[in-house]
Design brief:
By secondary structure, this protein is mainly alpha-helical. It contains 7 helices and no strands.
Length: 197
Amino acid sequence: MIEKELIRIWKSSPREEMVKFEKSRLMIEVANSSKHFNQLLWRRDMREIAAALTSIPIFFYIAFDVSFLASKIAACLISIWGASVIFKLIHARRKKPKPWGQDYLKYLHRYKKHLTLQKRILDNVLQWYIVPFVLLMFLFTSGFLTVPGKELFIYLYWVFIILLALVIYRLNKKAAKKFSPKIEQLERLIETLNSPY
């Protein structure tokens, strides 16, 4: 009963009041979903950075310890690649705008740009993450093919690396799809805030 009465009052309100209500509703909706979205991005970044920080010293040590030239080169390159992953994620994170100290509309434009960058990172995961990872792991393990009796283990490891790369690719593509509705929501809010009412 009360709900129907509120809907009736809302529908009988002047156009300006309805637009103000819609703006307020969209702003609250964006604020609530942004908090959750930012937490997901932060967890993903911390997980990837932790993995890279763990692998860098391990492969750097292996580069000096292993006797195969291909494996030495690959271990050094894996350490460099791990550092580049950390740099890429931190650089993208720094592009995230702060919600205070600026006009709300400017904040929304910058936040949309930030989400578009994050989506592009996920969409391009094959080029900057998976292909270097797979090639470097193949190069690293190829040095061990000269050890008698290790061939089967190396081939099984390569299959594991390919399967892992496929899983990483699928997870990133799935995560990238979550960005489109969020970006569209921001575009709707920007359009609503730019309306004359």
